[in-house]
Specification:
The chain has 161 residues and is α/β, with parallel strands linked by helices. It contains 3 helices and 11 strands, in the order βαβαββββαβββββ.
């Protein structure tokens, strides 16, 4: 099973649509957004690409933090961090690098996805993979997201043009 991992969309629907084309071509049904997605319209558009979207709210998601009751039904959101087990893989997802590091250090998860820094990064903390997919918006560098293969436990970074 492959999942899409992305962060920091910042309402950039043009870039999101480019990512969505890749996600559709790969037939990915589950997405993890690690915060700073933008407004409710962006949440609705992003959610259309998935059967299930796990969304951790970021520091700039104040516009939508009190609108979560209006999210599409396929969006599962977390104000601080979320956790889920898929295909026997324990996953946490969060916006903050600081919290992500703490979650990874806890040893409770196989993978921790995070955002906020806008920089793609992968490292091992003990036996936990800590992964930042970069930023969809392309504000500070190349626009990117990741596809994570839960069977192979391997990430593939996708750069957007």
């Amino acid at each position: 099973m492959k999942v899409a991992v992305f962060s920091d969309v910042h309402d950039n629907l043009l870039r999101w649509r480019e990512a969505a084309e890749i996600i559709r071509a790969e037939k990915i049904k589950v997405g993890f957004c690690c915060g700073d997605i933008g407004d409710l319209q962006t949440v609705e558009e992003v959610a259309k690409s998935f059967e299930t979207l796990y969304l951790a709210l970021g520091n700039l998601d104040f516009k939508i933090k009190n609108m979560t009751g209006l999210f599409p039904e396929n969006v599962i959101f977390a104000r601080d961090y979320g956790e889920i087990e898929l295909k026997k893989v324990k996953i946490a997802y969060v916006h903050s690098k600081h919290i992500a590091k703490q979650l990874a250090e806890s040893g409770k998860y196989d993978i921790v996805f995070y955002g906020h820094t806008h920089t793609p990064w992968e490292e091992k903390v003990g036996s936990t993979v800590l992964l930042n997919p970069g930023e969809v918006a392309g504000h500070f560098g190349k626009a990117s997201f990741a596809i994570y293969d839960l069977r192979k436990m391997k990430a593939e970074l996708k750069l957007l043009t």
